[in-house]
Design a protein that fits this description.
Length: 131
């Protein structure tokens, strides 16, 4: 899969390596989004904020999606990326929109099957600020 993005050569290479690694695992659907989007479990969303802010809404947590994951990664330097859970849900207890401006930072969440998307932490994962 090839994803076209407006970013530095170094950033493009990092994105290509990430996509190549993801494509070896059939559990992810890699999507390049330039506008607000409602994610589905299994989405790996590349938030391209070159033309403006991009907010990714997480779907309702249910017993049917327990253990399923979503990743959102900001791939451009301008503007902000954000995440927001559906009404009645939260991301680790936060019910509002969470945003970040840093390029190549991501949030990786897993459904608890009840009411929350829980964050995974790792070397490239950050905690967005709550608005």
């Amino acid at each position: 899969m090839t994803v076209a993005v407006n970013t530095s050569p170094k950033g493009e290479e990092q994105i290509r390596r990430s996509i190549d690694a993801l494509n070896t695992n059939d559990r992810w659907v890699v999507l390049n989004k330039t506008a607000d989007y409602t994610a589905a479990p299994g989405d790996f969303v590349l938030a391209n904020t070159t033309s403006g802010n991009v907010t990714i809404t997480f779907p309702l947590v249910t017993k049917l999606n327990i253990g399923q994951e979503i990743v959102v990664k900001k791939i451009s330097a301008s503007n902000t990326a954000g995440i927001v859970p559906k009404s009645g849900n939260s991301v680790d207890g936060n019910t509002g929109t969470q945003t970040w401006t840093e390029i190549h930072k991501l949030i990786h969440v897993i459904s608890d099957g009840s009411t929350q998307w829980r964050r995974f932490y790792g070397p490239d994962v950050m905690v967005p600020s709550v608005v």
